[in-house]
Specification:
Helices cover about 80% and strands about 0% of the residues. It is an all-alpha fold.
């Protein structure tokens, strides 16, 4: 067998040996793990898997919606959401393996699949995070404002008003960008340009994206 063919097997055996050594020296409670496996509710496991997979499908649908303006501007037809499912699964797998740096895998794959620039897909990720942050802030602030248990904590309760205000500000900004993106980009770019013209131009460009 040639060295080129043997190399993958050597790597596989080395990784398997390393994993075996770590398991042997980790003092892992295998008996407790076996008891936990016997006690699991398979229905809840199936529901959790269904929830995770449905989340990826919904994210693919949302990404397809966010792509429409860029595709329309480029004179291209819409991308069916199911064409983006694979990129989402691979992207989130990379995120789980490599951490936050893996966040760049998903926009890179979508950019190659759709023929769009990588920067435009990073902008889509930014918009995604705005909506994710808004949803989280809404849930968090509503709980802080309405939960009887949390209302006994005055400082935490006041934080609910602050977070609700920030969420409303974020909502107004997103709506303004959607309705008058060029105007908002020009205003923000001009304000940032008072400090740095290059940064102002970059911010304006990112808002338009």
């Amino acid at each position: 067998m040639s060295l080129k063919r043997a190399l993958p097997w050597v790597l596989f055996l080395a990784i398997a040996g390393f994993i075996g050594w770590k398991l042997h020296t980790s003092q892992f409670d295998w008996a407790g793990f076996a008891r936990a496996l016997r006690a699991i509710d398979l229905r809840l496991i199936a529901l959790a898997i269904l929830t995770i997979y449905s989340n990826n499908l919904l994210r693919a649908m949302r990404w397809a919606v966010f792509l429409r303006p860029a595709l329309k501007q480029a004179g291209k037809s819409r991308i069916p959401w199911w064409n983006l499912v694979g990129s989402n699964f691979i992207g989130f797998t990379g995120l789980a393996i490599f951490g936050r740096i893996g966040e760049l895998i998903r926009p890179l794959l979508v950019a190659r699949r759709t023929g769009q620039s990588f920067a435009s897909q990073v902008a889509v990720v930014t918009v995604e995070r705005v909506f994710d942050l808004g949803a989280f802030a809404l849930i968090f602030s509503v709980n802080l404002l309405l939960s009887p248990q949390l209302q006994t904590l005055p400082y935490l309760h006041k934080a609910g008003y602050v977070i609700a205000s920030l969420t409303l500000t974020l909502l107004i900004f997103v709506a303004a960008v959607r309705l008058a993106g060029a105007f908002v980009g020009s205003i923000v770019g001009t304000l940032v340009g008072l400090v740095s013209k290059a940064a102002g131009a970059t911010v304006k460009e990112k808002i338009l994206h």
